[in-house]
Records
---
Amino acid sequence: MITASLLILIAILVTACAPSNKAIQTAIALTPSSTAYPTHTAYPSHTPYPTYTIPPTYTAVIKIKIVTKTSTPTPIYTPTETLIPTETSTITPTKDPLTTEKNSGFYLVGVKIAPGLWKSNGTGNRCYWAVTTKTGDIIKNHYGMGGGTAYIPATGFQVEFNDCGTWTYLGP
């Protein structure tokens, strides 16, 4: 059962922005803790009717959180002077690591070697090269004289060069 005093207390708390602790304590102190219920004993004593007792006392606890706004200062940016780049007379092109010269070894296509046409400068007769798939199946290979060309398809996975001299990239 909500009493009139409790309704007044709720109205004060809802409408006030930030009530002081003293105002809250005063409002709580003025609110009765419970209303006593009368005991009904108007029945004849020979009739077994129940009697009513006072219900337990409940205390309302109201918590109020007061939020304080703080402001963060806005940073001030100051411009700095930037130098103007000057022209250089010589431009050195950067070499693509996939197309740099290759020697004997294993190279992953697209990772360590570019697909396309490669030329060997080898002169021996024990030159071996092979292009394989991921499973190790040979797509193309050669064993014999060095100094020839090899086409590495983009579908290849790995290339092996052995005793063929230096390989130079000719293009796609």
---
Amino acid sequence: MVDQTPPATCPTDFGASCYKYKVTWTEADPTGVTVNVYAVTKCPAKPHCFTASTPIPTANLTLMGSAPAASGTASFVVGDGETNGDGWFFGPGKTTLFVYAVVVQASSATGKSAFVLVWTW
């Protein structure tokens, strides 16, 4: 599940308008499991960028955050924007990247889960 809420104040780099994404989950056995939250930075087809079965090239994924599965949550802030995706953030070299979807993947010493689409633009 994903929640988009404007924080009380935005980080300076984002100007006056931003959103805090809060992704939550439940894990049956969280021992040794990490949940990685990725922004999908390219939209393959408009107006609906993704469905649960849309293939997503790994080159279009940017790690936004990770947390132990036991925590049940991870958060990150993006700048406001609706023309190109639902928000933006700075990637490597201060490149502006847009958020078209959010996916999560659980991982442990025994392997990785499939990606799960939690939100799409």
